[in-house]
Sequence to fold (194 residues):
Amino acid sequence: MKLFCINMRGASERRAHCERHFAERGVSVAFIEGFPARQCSVRHVAKGFTMGMVGCYITHERLMEEIVRNGYGVTIILEDDVMLAEGFADFIAGIHIPHDWDVAFIGWGSIDGQKLKAIDTTWTVPLAGPGRVWGTHCYMVNGKKGAENILKVLHPMTDQVDLMMTQAMKCGKLKGLLLSRPLAVQAGFVSQVQ
Fold:
């Protein structure tokens, strides 16, 4: 299983945080550079989208393309503002997903907010889940097939990448799952993809 963590060039404090935190959790990841949205010309950014939304979208899109190009199997994508639950490494070592799926959110946010709780490995589908969820700080892609299906729903960019994926899950265009309780939350850093 591949694990990637997105980190912006020059974000050394966030990278150091991740390296310490992942080591504490017994998780080994490869760091990849996020797309610096400031490289986009304003004419390429649709009205209503921030540069941060565009940078995040392009970064995750490029990761899906890399998964397809390299034929990777199950892949976990993390962002550098993530906090993992204790037992995360054990969870991924023994992971069992009982359904055909493209994307599985193992870290997510909701309107009510989330705190890390005891690990609950019950999977649910978005329509039966806790309502509106979002976040690309910790999710799994079911290899090349999952990444190809995600790429199909990402064009054209109509919203933030996480909301596009969860909306596609809810309308049946992506086979997606959520853990009943998130195993990862965002750590509160300010976005650096602007």
